[in-house]
Write a structure and sequence with these properties.
- This protein is mainly alpha-helical and about 160 residues long.
- Helix content is about 65%, strand content about 5%.
- A two-stranded antiparallel sheet has the order 1-2.
- It is elongated.
- The protein starts with 14 loop residues before the first strand and ends in an 8-residue tail after the last strand.
């Protein structure tokens, strides 16, 4: 009498993640996000002359708004890389979930400045900076994930 293992109704997907390249791309994305935030602050504050109020959601490590904004964007981009990695290994259609998660976090980051007492110019400027950072993270990490995650369904490679 031979014993055959029970078959699963849905076979496990064959997923390969080039972890080193994924996290190198995530680190590069984090640097871009940080630079986008810092440059946004410098443009708005120093060139446009808008007085920015430090959002309460920033990590306040120093007295420099540009550094705090950049460092927060850097860490959030690394967190997004981790989410993309996790989704790649655990969910069907990870690209769809990743796009929704990053998109909704970006929208939330754009709305939060309007809850404070800052001037409208400051609120709009902060929302635009957050939009640019969110778009950079979404586009760069999607591209990184499409080149470092390979699965039978090609869920990261589809447009």
């Amino acid at each position: 009498m031979s014993h055959q293992p029970a078959r699963r109704p849905f076979p496990e997907p064959d997923i390969a993640v080039d972890t080193n390249r994924l996290w190198a791309g995530g680190l590069a994305t984090a640097f871009v996000a940080g630079l986008a935030a810092a440059v946004g602050v410098l443009i708005v504050r120093d060139i446009a002359g808008v007085k920015l109020q430090e959002p309460s959601t920033l990590l306040g490590l120093t007295d420099s708004l540009a550094f705090n904004y950049a460092f927060t964007a850097f860490l959030l981009a690394l967190a997004a890389c981790g989410i993309g990695h996790l989704l790649s290994l655990t969910t069907p259609r990870p690209r769809v979930f990743f796009t929704w998660i990053v998109g909704l976090v970006t929208v939330a980051a754009m709305v939060v400045p309007f809850a404070g007492d800052a001037s409208l110019g400051s609120q709009l400027s902060t929302a635009v900076i957050n939009l640019v950072v969110g778009l950079a993270v979404a586009s760069l990490l999607s591209a990184v994930l499409s080149r470092t995650v390979v699965d039978a369904e090609r869920t990261w490679q589809e447009p």
